[in-house]
């Protein structure tokens, strides 16, 4: 019987990539980052990791996997390579409307603490910061934001706060004028978030699989959106177990539009619109 196409190097594939290689990668990324890769992700894995093979000078995926066993720094790059970082400013806008409403009800109690647990390149934590400024009509609201991700490369981009101008094309012009600085000269195609926003945010690497997080509670809000879909249910439950004690009883957890935590009803209950509260939260916080 002819071998599976994945088992050979072909004119379309520069490197040999076997089924066994893919299974080892699946186990390793699950172990390191909790990500569950389906068999349908084989082409994606090849495309992203083949760049690392070229950079490292490895001739096969088997050689690269051996490298991962002895090189801890490359393991971090491996995780970065397989992490999906699709994001945008004010994505799922209704969550920011809910955030503004709650912040206004909270008043100026200090500090209000927010954790953005899948910050990617920074668009989400900066959107949270802008919403806080709008809620308090101030560029220095009483809000502290921790922005974390497992991918160190995207965290560096987020901390820099520089974006292509087309990233904010759909944003309200008044919001753009208030919160962004436009590039000049050779950088007219770029924008930078205002330093007041940057000062509100602390960027750090956090692996959601860690037994303990370098984020201290009590937190008023946790944004963990569009990342749980990459974890299996037991992994999701373990993360939610660690979230619950960090969140104030009246705090809110924001999830992605395609995520549901019904399997963790003993920890969190839905308020609708992919917003959750602790299962022991007083009912009158709505």
Keywords:
286 residues; alpha/beta; seven-stranded mixed β-sheet; three-stranded antiparallel β-sheet; 10 helices
Quick recap:
Helix content is 39%, strand content 17%. It has helices at 19-33, 42-56, 61-70, 72-82, 94-106, 123-136, 152-160, 173-179, 195-200, 233-243; strands at 112-116, 143-149, 162-164, 180-182, 190-193, 201-205, 219-223, 247-254, 268-272, 275-278. 33% of the residues are buried.
Task: Give an account of the 3D structure.
The chain is α/β, with parallel strands linked by helices and 286 residues long. It has ten helices and ten strands. It has helices spanning 19-33, 42-56, 61-70, 72-82, 94-106, 123-136, 152-160, 173-179, 195-200, 233-243, and strands spanning 112-116, 143-149, 162-164, 180-182, 190-193, 201-205, 219-223, 247-254, 268-272, 275-278. The strands form two sheets. A seven-stranded mixed β-sheet has the order 6-2-1-7-8-10-9. α2 (42-56) packs antiparallel against α4, α3 packs across α4 (72-82) and α5 (94-106) packs across α6. The longest helix is centred in the first third of the chain and has 15 residues, at 19-33. The termini are far apart.
